[in-house]
Design brief:
Blueprint lengths: L2 E3 L6 E3 H45 L7 H27 L5 H11 L6 H11 L5 H16 L10 H23 L7 H4 L10 E7 L14 E6 L6
Antiparallel strand pairs: 1-2, 3-4
Length: about 230
């Protein structure tokens, strides 16, 4: 009987069933690879935005970004992220990865197939099946070659890896900045439009006497406790 076995099971299956199983598995892996790539890309975008915003807000923009500029920047990041999700996840999720595309990806990583799998899928899709013995021979060759490889390595994950490397670099830079920066990092300014003051190197932690009523032409001594960097002029 025309059968083969998978590496994860001792049950015998027909050659065509095994080929169909591996194709379906590859199509599913392609979808999930796109999902992970999109998630990693959005995480990189958001973290890069936070890092660049913090850097510019601390040192390059006098007085920090205004409220309106912060709102536009935040809206832009949200719109880009949402559009990316719709384009790369939502819309493709409702479409089925074509069997020929999955077959071509497998062929690129399994040279022993020598276009045998592509021809098999193409014939089945076109409804032009050859002689039964030839069909069985093509199915057998495809199944045998597929059983010799780890299908996890068939999916092209180079783009996902590149994005992950960029994400890691941004995380490292952000961590280094958080450790060595004399100004504290706040996510409220880049992620909200709340009235949050810009970060400074000096922090006022106590003011004495606080709220007070002063008569005209009288003076009121005020003392302030400052932490971190002491300002040269008050």
């Amino acid at each position: 009987m025309s059968t083969t076995t998978s590496k994860s099971s001792s049950k015998y299956v027909d050659y065509d069933e095994y080929v169909d199983y591996q194709l379906e598995r590859t199509r599913s892996e392609i979808k999930w690879n796109d999902v992970l790539t999109t998630i990693a890309g959005i995480a990189t975008l958001v973290l890069s935005y936070l890092f660049l915003f913090t850097l510019l807000d601390h040192w390059f923009i006098a007085g920090g970004f205004s409220r309106s500029t912060r709102a536009w920047l935040l809206i832009s990041v949200l719109v880009i992220s949402a559009a990316w999700v719709v384009w790369k996840i939502v819309l493709p999720w409702w479409r089925k990865v074509h069997a020929l595309f999955a077959a071509r990806m497998i062929e690129e990583h399994v040279p022993g197939l020598k276009s045998n799998l592509l021809n098999l899928i193409d014939l089945e899709a076109a409804g032009r099946k050859p002689n039964a013995s030839i069909m069985k021979a093509m199915e057998k060759r495809s199944a045998v070659e597929l059983s010799r490889v780890d299908m996890e390595h068939v999916i092209d994950r180079r783009q996902l890896l590149r994005i992950c490397y960029v994400l890691l670099a941004v995380v490292v830079l952000f961590c280094l900045y958080a450790v060595f920066s004399p100004k504290p990092i706040s996510f409220l300014r880049p992620l909200t439009i709340a009235n949050v003051p810009v970060a400074t190197q000096s922090r006022i932690v106590e003011v004495t006497p606080g709220d007070a009523i002063v008569l005209a032409r009288r003076t009121l001594p005020v003392s302030v406790v400052i932490r971190d960097k002491q300002p040269a002029h008050v």
